[in-house]
Specification:
alpha/beta; about 25% strand; ABC_transporter-like_CS; 10 helices; AAA+_ATPase; Rossmann fold; nucleotide-binding; about 260 residues; single chain; binds adenosine-5'-triphosphate; 6-stranded mixed β-sheet
Length: about 260
């Protein structure tokens, strides 16, 4: 498998509020020297304890946060240091799904507006846009009368389907899911995970799946990377990571989960 999505040497620090003008606190490293790659149609799981840097990494990989140094590239094209033209071209290719569909969906927008929003920068006719919205709602199995309804009219699982439809509508290559099923009950989690697996097949998607829930990662990921205090300490095929963990951090995560 060719690895078409890569992150090389990523570092990210935050400088906390200065104590005074004369005594700024030093920048605290959140991620250090992160290297990872993703093949087409592959799912990479990222696990780690709370505060290990998972969400920060997800945001850097999606282009929402800028690393201090290092780069993220898609098909060899670096988008961390790219011109705005290149960033604009790559933006539809990498989409993100978050934990809380309630918070991620604007309650004042209809499903048509929410799902169609990523299409606004693209030059499509109104008819083409409407057709894409109708098709993607069908693909995530939302009822056809959803278009003019507001997020509050839907269950948690259906709201996550709306968020998935919005991520899918630009026909991305990579979807980065940060705790995408964590807010759902166990049976809805299973339904949404199976929907994501089905969409991976149909759309030829690659996923980066961030979760504190190891059962979710084991179900969905081909490979898994383990993050500890901003470092990747272990990475490999998911079956190996779960059956034969090499690093203490992985062993304690497994012990805490199973
Ligand atoms: N803007 C910021 N300013 C200060 N510290 C930050 C900032 N963003 C993240 N951090 C710190 O960086 C570390 C990593 O945070 P991050 O949210 O990426 O971890 P996480 O693994 O996703 O945690 P969780 O599983 O609890 O969501 C934490 O210690 C967090 O407090």
């Amino acid at each position: 498998m060719s690895s078409f999505f890569e992150a090389q040497g990523l570092n990210y620090s935050v400088r906390s509020q200065s104590r005074s003008f004369f005594q700024p606190r030093p920048a605290r490293p959140i991620l250090q020297n992160i290297n990872l790659h993703l093949a087409e149609r592959e799912t990479l799981g990222i696990i780690g304890s709370s505060g290990s840097g998972k969400s920060t990494l997800a945001r850097i990989l999606s282009g929402l946060l800028q690393p201090d140094n290092g780069h993220v590239s898609l098909r060899g094209e670096d988008f961390t240091n790219a011109t705005s033209d290149v960033r604009q071209k790559l933006r539809p290719e990498i989409q993100m799904i978050f934990q809380d569909p309630q918070g991620a969906l604007d309650p004042r927008q209809t499903v048509r507006e929410i799902v169609g929003e990523p299409l606004l920068p693209l030059s499509l006719t109104q008819e083409e846009r409407e057709q894409r919205i109708v098709n993607v709602l069908r693909d995530v199995a939302l009822p056809s009368n959803s278009l003019n309804r507001y997020p509050r009219a839907f269950s948690g699982g259906q709201r996550q389907r709306i968020a998935i439809a919005r991520a899918l509508i630009t026909k991305p290559s990579v979807i980065i899911a940060d705790e995408a099923v964590s807010a759902l009950d166990v049976s809805t989690q299973a339904i949404i995970l199976n929907l994501l697996l089905d969409l991976q097949e149909r759309y030829g998607l690659s996923y980066i799946f961030v979760s504190h829930d190891l059962a979710v990662i084991r179900h969905i990921s081909h490979r898994t990377a383990v993050l500890d205090a901003g470092h990747i300490v272990e990475t490999g095929p998911t079956a190996d990571i779960f059956s034969n963990p090499q690093h203490d951090t992985t062993r304690s995560l497994l012990a805490a989960n199973f």
